[in-house]
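Bumping with the actual sequence this time:
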Amino acid sequence: MVIFGSHGGGVPQGFLKSNTTTYDFGTVTATATATYSFTVTAFGTTIYPSLAYTGTNTSNFTYTHNVPATMDAGSTALITATFQPDTTTGAKNATIGITYTW
């Protein structure tokens, strides 16, 4: 499962909104991969986003994105998470965190 989060600080003059907050890849065998893409949209004033990947199973996930260093209101960006589980059993979790300032 990948959990997507975003936040800023102070009184929100600008903010990001994702079209999803969590996604469960379901059962994926160790030899397979699964991908999920989602978008983020900027609102309000210009924001300055950054991404980070955290969690206990980050080695099982990768992500690609076209999130620019600066996003104006109304702009969107695509983030794609790819899951390829290792051979250990059990659930695998990671988080793509999107932080931003304005």
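The tokens above came from a reply further down the thread. The two ends are 30 Å apart (CA to CA).
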